Amino acid sequence: MDIYHRSPSLQSGSIRLLKVEPASTQHGTVRCNLEVVELATKPAYCALSYTWGSPWPVGKSPAQHSNSPAIIDAKGTPTYNANQQLQAIDSTVNGSKETTRCLINCNDANVWVTQNLFHFLSHCSRTAAARFRGYIWVDALCINQRDLDERSHQITMMADIYREASEVLVWLGVDDVHTSQGIELLRDIACLTPAKRFLLLPESVQSHERWIALGHFFQRSWFNRAWIIQEVHLYFYMGSSLQNLAARLGATKRSSISSSGDNLLHALIRSRLSACQDPRDKVYSQLQLGNADIFPTYNASIQEVFTATAVWILEHSDNLFVLCCVEGEDFQRTPELPSWVPDWSVTESLGLRITGYPQFSAGLGRTRKLEIINEDGRHILRVEGAEIDRVGEVYATKDEIRDDLLLAQTWSLFQDLDLASAEVLWRTIVTNRSSEAGNPRTQYFYPASSKLQESFHHWILWRAGESFKHKNPETKMELLSNITVHSKDDSILPSDTEIRNMLEKCIEDPQYHDKLYSSASLFDVHYTHAMFLRPFKTKQGYFGVGTQCLQHGDSIFIVSGCRVPLLFKSVDASSHYRLVGGSYVHGVMDGQSLENEKLHFQMLSLK
Q1: Which ranges carry the Heterokaryon incompatibility domain (predicted)?
Q2: Contact at 8 Å (CB) between 341 and 307?
Q3: DSSP labels for 190-255?
Q4: Beta strand 78-80 pairing with 88-93
Q5: Does the pLDDT at position 76 exceed 90?
Q6: CA-to-CA distance for 531 and 165, rounded, in angstroms?
Q7: Cβ proximity of 345 and 302 under 8 Å
């Protein structure tokens, strides 16, 4: 029997609410019922925010209590032991094991739910608190997930459903040995003044074990869900802990962004690292926050949803910032996606990571020109641009450089640089932006502060020492004999002698290179802000950074109305291009290229 047999379809403005029956025995079946209500009638209910699958990410598992109940009510009374036997199955899809499923009874019909949801429903059935005895909205049961039309309509109501709820209950999963210490540390942090919170280690919260416990707390899967950005509001529940943490910590108020079409794009950027079981939900979960009048439909493919979203953003904004969010073909997961459409299923921190690029104006001196056409069933974006240079020498990625600075392919980036060139290099690597350490509101400055220059010098020594430390004895001796920088006399780079002395000290004192970090940390913080980038030098000698996917010969274009230069790859020597991604090219970011009267602008077709 289907659990929706009493309410096969929902009318406009209607929702289902769940009511869990009190448990008749300690290990009895969880029973619940669904009831249809009109949201406009202001029914009393709580809304649940939780993780459908495991409360822990793949490869992680909680450190369980050995003799303690996993769930305790607000008074400290044990209500449910998570170690009890569950009636459960392991479902397998395409040969891979999925989340454990548990059986409940809803509307007199048996239905399987994930173990995490089962834990919550079991908690409700065994707890006397009023909030668990009333109506609860749980998406997995209150929405008929097999009815795609109902699913689409209910998603448009999600913001209202959470807004109208008397409480939003956040279920993080059963607790473990780290829970109490992590919560205690959060309470202590909440008691600190704003100024003290920004100290590295205030005395009242100095405890290695508690910080580890807090790390485990934030590793729970719930914190990585895309939907939580609109769901989270009030209470957090995690096993024995019931805390209004949002109120205790004083939720940070951010200034609202503009009411233009950029709202949706900024929401998508903020949620890029978040995960969704259905990639289309990366967009749909942000529609309310982005004030976007896109109707969610699960009959459309992922490619269609992402393409329609990019088109909507372009039509509802006056810039081309969405093109800078393209991740490049090496990262793209969605097949048949136009090169100019960001793939929001990608969860890496890609691009320059400068939301809006407000400091840059490479192509702002010209009015944006664009049109979207359909060519043989493909969406083609036409923009106006002019080629200013091409990618010449390509270096190792930023991640590879930091990981092993002494490799020949990474070390080549720092060869033969005079004072001016070395400064251009470090400014390029950090996109010429810096923030003042210790500033509570983290304001970025452009151009970057000269304080980074000295830190860059020590950063080279520190990373060289780190690389040296992991070499075998034979390689170490070879490096000591052959290390050369070829730096100019006035360069800010360390000299051969300075590097060799540092390496010898690393042999004498294995902890020596760690001491260098205090001087190198300022530059390293800025360096690691955006890691999925690759430095390059143009054929005209300019330093730049762009997506890891860039290649020798890629064209660098100034595009009318775009704040940063874009990298294009020619398609079969035709007038068509594929977008590789945005870039920072030192010396053109303030519109200097537009002063060239010979610059030839033309309409370009992006596949």
Answers
A1: 45-231
A2: yes
A3: HHS-HHHHTSSS-GGG--HHHHHHHHHHHTSGGGGBSTHHHH-SSEEEETTEEE-HHHHHTPPPPP
A4: unpaired
A5: no
A6: 41
A7: yes
Query: From CA 538, how far away is CA 533, in angstroms rounded?
Result: 15
pLDDT value, residue 201:
57
**Per-residue pLDDT tens digits for 514-536:** 788 888 999 999 999 889 999 99
Q: How far apart are CA 541 and CA 428, in angstroms?
A: 13
Q: How far apart are CA 306 and CA 342, in angstroms?
A: 7
**Per-domain boundaries in the chain:** 14-177+220-249, 402-528
The pLDDT of residue 6: 79
Span 416-426, pLDDT tens digits? 788 899 999 99
> With contact defined as beta carbons under 8 Å apart, do 545 and 367 qualify?
no
Is the CB of residue 162 less than 8 Å from the CB of residue 291?
no
Find, among 283, 325, 285, 291, the residue nearest to 308 by Cα.
283
Is 332 exposed, middle or buried, given 0-12, 13-18 or 19+ CB atoms closer than 10 A?
Answer: middle
In DSSP terms, 18 is beta-bridged to 34, 136
Sole residue written with tokens 């010098």: 457
What 3-state DSSP class applies to 583?
A: strand
User: Which among 89, 489, 57 is positioned nearest to 275, based on CA atoms?
Assistant: 57
3-state SS record for 23-34: CCCCCCCCEEEE
pLDDT tens digits, one per residue of 343-389: 999 988 778 887 767 889 999 989 999 999 998 888 999 999 999 99
Alpha helices in 72-165 (DSSP H): 115-125, 130-133, 139-142, 148-156, 158-164
In the structure, what pLDDT confidence band is assigned to residue 20 with cuts at 50, 70 and 90?
A: very high
Say what the pLDDT of residue 413 is: 87
Instruction: Quick: pLDDT tens for 265-287.
Output: 998 998 888 888 899 999 998 98
Of 124, 132, 127, 212, which Cα lies nearest the Cα of 176?
A: 212
426-461 as b/e: b if 16+ CB within 10 A: bbbbbbbbbbeeeeeeeebeeebbeebbebbbbbbb
547: left (phi over 0), alpha (psi -120 to 50) or beta: beta
Distance CA 431, CA 355 (A): 13
Half-sphere exposure of 184 (CA within 13 A, CB side): 14
Per DSSP, helices labelled H in 261-405 are 262-270, 281-284, 302-315, 398-403
pLDDT of residue 356: 67
Give the mean model confidence (pLDDT) for residues 252-256.
Answer: 39
> Would you say residue 467 has pLDDT above 90?
no
Closest alpha carbon to 270 in 259, 257, 251: 257
DSSP assignment string, 539-577:
TTS-EEEEETT--TT-EEEEETT-SS-EEEEESTTSSEE
Q: Tell me: pLDDT of 249 over 50.
A: no
Rounded CA-CA distance 172/175 in Å is 8
